[in-house]
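Lay summary. Proteins are chains of building blocks that fold into shapes, and those shapes determine what they do. In this project we predict the shape from the chain. Here is one chain we studied, written as its sequence of building blocks.
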Amino acid sequence: MNKTSFCRSFVWPQTVTFFAAFLVCSFAAVAQPSTAPVRSADFVVAVVNSEPITNQEVQSLSLRLQRDARTQGLASNSSDSKKLALEQLINEKVQIQQAASLGITVDDAAINQAEAGVASNNQLTVDALRARLQQDGISLNTFREQLRQQLLLTRVREREVDNRIRISDFEINQFLNEQIQRQSTSMPSNLNLAMILIGVPENSSPEQLKVLADRAQSVVTRARNGEDFAALATTFSTTADRGANGGAMGLRPADRYPELFLQATASLPVGGVSELVRSGAGFHILKVLQRQAPPATLLVTQTRARHILLRPSAQLSQAQAMEQLGLVRRDILSGKADFADVARKISQDGSAPQGGDLGWASPGMFVPEFEQTMNQLRPGQLAEPLVSRFGVHLIEVTDRRDAPMTDAEQRSLARNVLREGKLDDAYLTWIQDIRGKAFIEMRESPQ
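And here is the predicted shape, written in a compact code that computers can read:
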């Protein structure tokens, strides 16, 4: 089997952070060489500008596509997967040739960075990653060539496809208006109600019930005639606090009020007083003190986290740093140590004087491997030690909130989302253009 074709259709982003997927497809390909219906002698099935595509390359990619389809619960047959594999290989050939014609290259420093990114994302040192590759029958040269090729594909697509995408101010404004409208319909407005309760004791007789109902109706009439609602609440309410704060229950999301209250006040303006509302507790009189619509801006989920950072060095290996932070984590969870105290003592980050506190952070402020782990934590939860390009971290999330985005943040978000939405069409147009300029000779069909 030709190992250079393990994962050709994978387009890895920038520093190639999803090594797990690479391991699945490439190791599976190595594990099943005998199942591939490949002729003993390989042969050329297509030529792209004098560069050949071999039957073995098609077979390798075809097997991976079939496995991917089965993993996703999709039907796939050998004939269709071979056709798709050949198309992908042709597309990649013309893209790599286009990169060469444009002078786009990937140097060893970029490969080294990508390799380190793959290792750190999988909680491995570079040496451990290489040992894993060797264990699974993948040569280091093959792996690094795959990294080079995928980075090359990414760079040429970013340069050529991104330049084809145009996002106008009109599109941005339209997108933001739609998102804010959608947000306002999904988020409840905030509501502040004041309440007077005329309690009805259990087992009240019909006569007693009538007396209480008449009293409650009298309070409704007085409130609607302009008497001070707070004074009426202090005089008549039978709640435990006897109408403290004028019966005001405070500004809160509308869905935190009983449905009975929402129905009774739905059509009332601010200052309006409801009809009597009967519940198991008695008769309620409600006044709308304040209505607050959802913010006319997009919200972003922000996270507040703290961390302890150890940087590997000649005196402290990455494995030792992970072991040390693992022991620190155990002590914190057991109550033997305080996170902030430990951070001040041993953390090698600028946040150490603040006990490791990183402040409120919006998406994209941290490196992907750090942010991905952080986003999976609940407030108060402590992660296992994590390796990033900066060192080894111990992360704890302390709080999370939805905060309004600035105008610049909203427009940046809109531009990125709209750009992503246009990427597929722009890529298809571009690949058709460069394929149309290439000499592609189809030879013998894959076997």
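What the prediction tells us: The longest strand covers residues 391-404.
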